[in-house]
Write a structure and sequence with these properties.
Layout: H1 12-20, E1 25-28, E2 34-35, E3 51-54, E4 59-67, E5 80-86, E6 91-96, E7 109-116, E8 123-129
Parallel strand pairs: 6-8
Antiparallel strand pairs: 1-2, 1-3, 4-5, 4-7, 5-6, 7-8
Length: 132
């Protein structure tokens, strides 16, 4: 590999691109189970027929944790909050941005976005508080 080559995470990078451009989506099987790409099989029922569906505009934080002592992979990002947000058909894990860490609470309505890790310069899923 040369320095000019960029490593791609097939399917997930495409999903990040879509989320970054306001077109986040999830995969739905014929039974109505939702999942995120990359995926070829429904993790709930094993169906292989998966269709892209538009992700709801907002989700709700179900749980979160604030990290003050990170692993080396996120040392420049600390402190930061990681949350699981429910977007209806899918639950998504991401970093909460654009809000004081002390103001984050379960039930907070968020939108999905993409931010960049200060440590690695890699893109990460981010949640921003939805405008009230």
């Amino acid at each position: 590999m040369t320095d000019d080559e960029t490593v791609q995470d097939a399917g997930f990078d495409d999903w990040l691109d879509a989320a970054e451009n306001g077109g986040a989506y999830y995969l739905e099987c014929p039974e109505g189970h939702g999942s995120l790409p990359p995926r070829r099989v429904c993790p709930d029922c094993g169906a292989t027929e998966l269709a892209e569906r538009e992700l709801p505009d907002t989700g709700e934080i179900e749980t979160f944790t604030v990290t003050h002592v990170p692993t080396p992979a996120f040392e420049d990002d600390a402190p930061y909050a990681t949350a699981i947000a429910n977007f209806g058909p899918v639950r998504i894990t991401g970093q909460v941005v654009g809000i004081d860490l002390e103001a984050i609470e379960n039930g907070l309505e968020v939108t999905i976005d993409v931010s960049v890790s200060e440590t690695t310069d890699e893109r990460v899923v981010a949640f921003e508080p939805a405008e009230q």
